[in-house]
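Q: Structure tokens for this one, please.
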Amino acid sequence: MNRELIRFENITKSFDGYEVLNNLNLSIHENEFVTLLGPSGCGKTTTLRILAGFETPDSGRVIFDGEDITSLPPNKRQLNTVFQKYALFTHMSVADNIAFGLKIKGKDKNTIRDKIRYSLKLVGLEGFEDRAPSSLSGGQQQRIAIARAIVNEPKVLLLDEPLGALDLKLRQDMQYELIRLKNELGITFIYVTHDQEEALTMSDTVVVMNRGIIQQIGTPEDIYNEPQNAFVADFIGESNLLDGIMVHDCLVNIGGLDFPCVDTGFGTDHPVDVVIRPEDVELDASGNGQTRGKVVSIVFKGVHWEIRVESQIGITFLVQTTEHFPIGSEVGISVDPYNIQIMHKPASSDEQVFDKDVIETGEGYES
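A: Here is the predicted structure, written as tokens:
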């Protein structure tokens, strides 16, 4: 793993008596693409603004490349921010927008010209120097905003929901562009979004937040396949989130029926949360399975069918499958033990659950 570049130490922040960040600790490494992911009001943008210097924490420190920058003004920090609203100067040309920060730094004309050309080439907008921002599409304006940020050669690029105003196709295209830029530039990206697809698509590391508390840190695969609590499981992707009783190691009771699993260490006859992803529920048209059920709704999603099945154990399973099962059909239901995820029930809905070592090292249905 690359060396640590940024560390948030015990950061707290409140606005008008409302606590937005609660003792946040987080490490970010060089050349890492980190996404802060969570619902509105979870504290992700406040975290970004504290790093950028636009907000000051009530307590705690921000360490950047070994230096305490908690009180350092924004213009003294080696980072740039790309906002959702682009924040381009409408009275300036594209070239003047990109050159703005360079002129403030006193760079000579030849250097500025070369850097403008280089940054426009990076974002695929060569020859746009004399265009007005108002003549550009939303995607082009966002690329100019990114070019203006990277031309200053920051160590870190902060992106605050930069794709939120774009349509779906353009948003997807820009996701791949950001990955390419990160790999070409070799700088650290810190990205804020509430869109789980963006987080899973682009990130090296995802930080899931809720109510100012880090719920889980991990790779996209870890976050999706091994959620550490019910909030993460419910927020990331579709899931069947069920109440269960851990009978003993490797056996969980769901709805009165015992299911083999692979989890251990949850005690005996202990209440737990159980997560089963829709793609991991297996249906059998002949009725064979661990239990049986009846298809009550189905919708075509393009790459799969999304089906709801009312089971004999009183649970309605959400299922994603490439096979078509007509409404009303009787089916068998099975789940592989490796696809059953067991979690401790939290003491509260926003209980903090994290791996200390990771932090310190860093629609309608047819019916």
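A few notes: The first strand starts at residue 4 and ends at 15. The chain has two domains: 4-225, 230-345.
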